Amino acid sequence: MAYIFLRFWLMLMCPVGVLSSSVPVVKRSEGLDVAGSLLRSVGAVLIKGGGQIPTAKEFETLAVSTWQAAGFPGLELGNYNKFGTVKRSMVSEGIYDVAAGAPAHLPVSPHSEQAYLHQVPRFCSFVCMRPAEVGGELQLFDNVMLGTALGNLTDKFAKLGLTYFRVMGDQIHSANWSYATGMWQDRFGTPSWAEAKRLARADAMMGGSSGAELGPGPEGTVVLNWTVPAVTWINTTSSSGVKPVRAVLQSILDSHKSVNYGTGIPALHSTWGDGTEFDDLELEALRAAVAQSQWASLKLEEGDVVVVDNWHYAHGRSPYEGQRKHAALISDRFPRNVKSAQEACV
Q: Which residues constitute the signal peptide according to the record (predicted)?
């Protein structure tokens, strides 16, 4: 396990062609229309706060106004815990503490926020309230570049999709379950197993029209699993105009059981959409392609806010030392675009 983490981290730290200055920078005083224009054309923007940490409401306004100015008027703040499978500690309404999952000495595997859901937040945003003494860079990974680097595996992702698994505790049979996936009775708001299974099957936000499947797990736990598309079409802007391209929108590595941060039963897992496991060569190819897709590495300063197109870029974090305090928020969610505009017209 330690070897896998170390090897993956070294790949992420030493990718080819990564520019720490890839993300365009604006000052908060320049106005959010400027930030929105950059977000629309590039997919991410760093808003410098000059060392002034925004209040929770100011952070929300900065993020929401920026993505609305990027061409998404009316798109509001999303509720992370309402549909997420891991409960986050909330800093304020709609704003959550990012310090969950990976301990400081390990990297956070690249993922698009809540890409394990059928409907995925279109944008996410991060604010730095205290940078780590050493490390702790916010890393961004280009999902379009990932799709290209994966080659034939992208076609396989498009065909099969991805299945995600979440292990939850049972208040009676595994009462000591402590992972943030929680207890199934709390997740579904009922002590009735039959009702919980019905609610899972009806959960279109998680699994689309097929919903999710709830069943027994090991050692008195229960397992929730569902399947989602892995490939989406997004519009990119270049000198030649707007072009639809394929992006691999995923949360594979941070969900895979090989990256289990705790001990005992892995709470998270991911497989191909037909339920088959990723083999060693496929995981190695995925890790190499993710490393190749790294686009930016940012050591945020106090008051910095980054707004990211969550469909275009995945994010991760490098290991760090000392105290680090970052918070995040998400926009409302949309189903993936599984067909390009051209395909939809055929």
A: 1-20
One-letter identity of residue 244: P
| Annotated domain spans of the chain | 2-161+229-331, 163-224
**Tens digit of pLDDT for each residue in 204-251?**
999 999 999 999 999 999 999 999 999 999 988 766 777 889 999 999
Q: Cα separation of 294 and 313, whole Å?
A: 9
Burial 15-30 (b: 16+ CB within 10 A, else e): beebeeebbbebebee
DSSP-based three-state secondary structure for 121: strand
For the chain, how long is the longest CA-to-CA vector?
61
Fold exhibited by the domain 2-161+229-331: Double-stranded beta-helix (3.60.130)
Q: Where are the beta strands (DSSP E) in 24-144?
A: 25-27, 44-48, 90-92, 95-97, 108-111, 119-121, 123-130, 134-135, 138-142
The two three-digit tokens of residue 61, written as one number: 């306004």
pLDDT digit string (tens) for 34-55? 999 999 999 999 999 899 999 9
Is there a contact between 115 and 308 (Cβ–Cβ < 8 Å)? no
Q: Tokens 């992972």 map to which residue? A: 179
**First-to-final CA distance of the chain:** 47
Q: pTM of the predicted model, to two decimals?
A: 0.90
Amino acid identity for residue 133 in this structure:
E
Q: Which amino acid is at 138?
A: L
Judge contact between 94 and 329, C-beta under 8 A: yes
Note the Cα 232 to chain centre separation in Å. Answer: 14
